[in-house]
């Protein structure tokens, strides 16, 4: 990993997270995923590292380090557990909108004392008389969250509200991926909601949450792609076919080169978008591009890695089938890459 | 078996095959509704396979003399597309039974051998499994290490076979084992019955998809196999294995077509369901494009599959054509399933919707019975020979 | 015209078509060697087209009653693949003449009209051009502005048609013009002869490829067209135009198959020529894969094309199937040509090698006679109707 | 164009080149291409701007500005004329190997007084007894160059030599693209050669020339892709179909979004590789990735742009058919993208 663009402090954060992943996440990730166990322990470990306030400004009690180390650190998490990556992304979305809206919940969330999830515009929730109504087909962390922050509309106005997750009807999902992220379907029928912001303030905060998700998913997916590529390299260097390690075959090398190229490009887009954001400029388009490119790269790399693994790749022990499922699941979250393409079009040709 | 009458005229199936197709479609509709449950519970679709046996779907590649319907490879392809469009776990069970085991026995067994095993196989009383792969030999099949040592009037088989479809449910195993050191000519084929001493089911794989179909290790521990269970001659096993795979590939190509069709239908329904407030279609143009491209390729690759099956039914070698069919159809199945998940969005990724299951099931079609890259090399060599 | 006998049985062409295919292949080999020169000099392949006329290649879609061979659409497709594999400029000339002009006249003309024009068209004494597009109406054909004003026993035509294939070489023009304001029902079809007053050839396009085929503007300046040159009835022009395009699309699909085949053959030869010092094949696996994928799709999309042509020969509407064929084959032609240039490297990008010409010629197949995106919408609507 | 990574000086260079392109190149590019005229006037205009020594170190009389402004400035040239871009790339390759080898030809080359072209390893030239022998199927600028610098082997040793271009047998090519770059086939049968370097020194210099070409072609191709996208946007906003401008069609927007995404990613890779190079670190892999990604993006964008133009796109007046031809021609130069993929594989799995 080239550290061209990270400061020493940022680098240290990334390094610390990487160590946590290696020590705590990697050894248990496959088993937890297979049994759909929730990644509470890892979530708490990240809380102990204090990273949930990483991108919150110093004046609001955060580390004030911007988005770049968030994106970079998510790479090492995504390489092992997209579920954990997604939990952090939700927590960071919550922390940043709470910062924007001046909520006093911020400290608890930044400390990881409350587990929060964010439900975006795509679910179409509505608020009337302080009550939240609507339905979300899938929300990561929904089953375990303490609090849910929801983008909604109240009449013609945009509002941002928080609700006690326990007050919503939640049902666990047997979904394609993110098995350790406690994904659930959420239905609210007039749940008491606290309005965090409305009108332009709400829109601004929701925009920030979206940007956070795009950047975060881009980082996590870049990591997922690297994870698949590394797994394939390892397998191909050990596996003998036709008298030689698979890795000496041009065919295998070519696949890995193409995957490596796709993820390298996605990563530069993601880092660029993070840097521009950290300079206080608008990077929404680049962030959307980065998310699409990174998720596509992750799915491609997982797909090719499965193929390089052959029959092994179709079994759960070799990790790459998980990356494949998780990549496709990341793809459809936050409105999904297909609708992001439409949003990019709208942004470009408005 | 060869089918002499024209089965496809001007790109239409013969009336006989159209009728058979409708029969299988009805079977799939009536008996394969449990596909989601088989997947979620990793449960073998025993009843569905039993009904298939009763309806004669387990004997399409067996001669009438031995209780088969001798409908051939094309009919099997038509059948397998219909079944796999609804339940892939049932589909692979029937594909292996017909396209690998029955086909192989029909071609390489003596009359006595056929008379012994087919009566049980054509009814489904026994299911067959094809045991070629080992832990250290996947695409490089000739590297297999399982041994068969001749001792008087029998062989002693030792070793372990990996990734065996229907492994824990089959009663008859076609086993490829090494009778001499020669890499290729040292391989022989045997029939081994599951009830014999020393045959046991080893590790069961936990898989991305195809979860209703048990994929297991088959362990052979000093299994005493009578010499009359040797197929064809000693040392001809690798030839038998490769020849059989042409037919197997047609089965998997058809499975892939079924998966692709199911996924494409889902996308079509999604487009049809998207209407604006005035009831006009509102699906975006890019989604319609994707649907059109996938549907076009489905028709195209079905023709590739039927072409190869027709050749095989006529007794003409079809390695190149079968490889084209499998390579194209299996990639299409994956592409279509991935698109279905993408286009259906959140709904496509939840287990209440078949899209995510199709995506998981589809992935194996590019791997088993010859991975895509192997098919491509077969095609390139075939065309440039 | 309908062809009642089975023309494709079990994916094989009938003996009659196989014989015809060989005849055309010989023609292409013997008479189309100048393809590179036509391209470099932007020279119309006049002699090659004349020979085609003598060999009966300009009358495949005309009934025998009018001097045609009534071989139909499938035969035309088989023919066009062979010609376009060698010379695309000759290919498009013959495609437009047969698949658009002759087909249209055969279906929509009175006996008197046919007897008047076909004798010259079937021999190639006259070449036909199909004039639908205008500067402001490409994919949106119904937006055309060319006018036909009725005055007694004739019509006065005014306007300009753009991108007319064979524009400066044709003697007979099928012109679509507006007889009333109604967007769709205001369009009528006429035959206009090139020798008439007021018909002139306007701007000649300078193009990426297809440089031996003149693409020109046709200017109509108060052209007096006898009423008996109206085709079918007034106001039915748009129906005629769209119906004809189904056949035209099959012609372009076949053209694309020919281009794809030529490119794929070049890649195959490149692989075969790459040997290591011991004479063993040394082409990289990725190149072999690409070759295998392209060759598989070529077979698959040829079947799509033949299927649609067969339907049309039987008088069955084939808009969806023709759109599938054109959309898939034209994309394949471009993919194959691009790959040929990539894989042949520097050699592929120099004019001494046909690869770069194939790449330039191929590009138009995705544009004319209905751009790819239009085909995709036709397919989606057809399948979901 | 976001100037996040350019210094003021660098920005000025890019701006000056952009103005030259707008004033001198754009008005004549189509006509020159159609008649296969050589871009001498533009080459000389660039010389007047003094950019041929842009990346040469200050101590050797150059501007010492590194590779980043070279890559960035090539974008605006590539958007109009890949031929001119390729001429600059060749000249820059020559200048940098002359710098490396301490040749006194450097000043003339950096000033643009001599037009130089570079023939790389892929042609397999050999030197024996000071005479150059070999054949190159296509060398940009070959027909007009004063000097040719050639990577060759002398026995087992790598050598870098220069020859008078006039002493070689040259024949003009009717090629697919780069019509204004005077491409030619070159045959040498024992042409007197000046050895600039041999052994490791030669290898190092040749490596630098390769890197320069990869970065340069990446920049030019990013520009070419932007050029195609801009042309499509312009046409689609003016062209009416079914009663509306083409550009309001989702279909057209989606194509442009996807092209934009591909080129954005390629550009970040290219700039990243240039920045890393300018820090004195090795960026060969990233540069190869950038070249492949950028050329692919250019071909994709030109292809889609032709499609959006419909029949117009197939004619020479709308520029995009030129970008399509030029993109494919850039692809096969410098060994070609296909062999670069093999080199990437070799570098990664050695």
For the termini of chain B, the CA-CA separation is 27 Å
Helix-strand pattern of chain B: EEHHHHHHEEEEEEEEHHHHH
Structural class of chain A: alpha+beta
Mean pLDDT of chain A: 96
Number of helices of chain B: 11
The overall strand count of chain B is: 10
Low-confidence stretches of chain B: none
Radius of gyration of chain B, in angstroms, nearest whole number? 21 Å
Strand order of the largest sheet of chain B: 3-6-7-10
Question: Can you tell me the number of structural domains of chain B?
Answer: 3
The CATH class of the largest domain in chain A: Mainly Alpha
The biggest beta sheet of chain B is recorded as:
4 strands, mixed
Please report the distance between the alpha carbons of the first and last residues of chain A.
38 Å
CATH architecture of the largest domain in chain A: Up-down Bundle
Can you characterise this structure?
The complex is a heterotetramer, with two copies of chain A (350 residues) and two copies of chain B (385 residues). In chain A, 54% of the residues lie in helices and 16% in strands. By secondary structure, chain A is an alpha+beta fold. Chain A has three domains: 8-110, Orthogonal Bundle (Butyryl-Coa Dehydrogenase, subunit A, domain 1), CATH 1.10.540.10; 116-198, Beta Barrel (Butyryl-CoA Dehydrogenase, subunit A, domain 2); 202-349, Butyryl-CoA Dehydrogenase, subunit A, domain 3, CATH 1.20.140. In chain A, the strands form two sheets. In chain A, strands 1, 2, 3, 4, 5, 6, 7 and 8 form an eight-stranded mixed beta sheet that branches. A two-stranded antiparallel sheet of chain A has the order 9-10. The radius of gyration of chain A is 20 Å and the shape is globular. Chain B has 385 residues and is α+β, with helices and mostly antiparallel strands. Chain B has helices at 15-31, 35-41, 46-54, 72-84, 88-108, 111-123, 237-273, 285-313, 319-344, 354-362, 372-384; strands spanning 8-9, 12-13, 128-131, 147-151, 154-165, 172-178, 187-193, 199-204, 215-226, 230-231. In chain B, the strands form three sheets. Chain B has a four-stranded mixed beta sheet. Chain B has a four-stranded antiparallel beta sheet with strand order 4-5-9-8, with helices on one face. In chain B, strand 1 (8-9) and strand 2 (12-13) form a beta hairpin. Chain B is globular, with a radius of gyration of 21 Å. The model of chain B has no long low-confidence stretch (mean pLDDT 95). Chain A binds chain B through residues 34, 136-138, 173-177, 185, 240-242, 251, 299, 303, 306-307, 310-311, 313-317, 321, 324-325, 328-329, 331-333, 335-339, 341-342, and chain B through 40, 133, 136-140, 143, 162-163, 205-210, 284, 286-287, 334, 338, 341-351, 356, 359-360, 363-364, 366-368, 371-373.
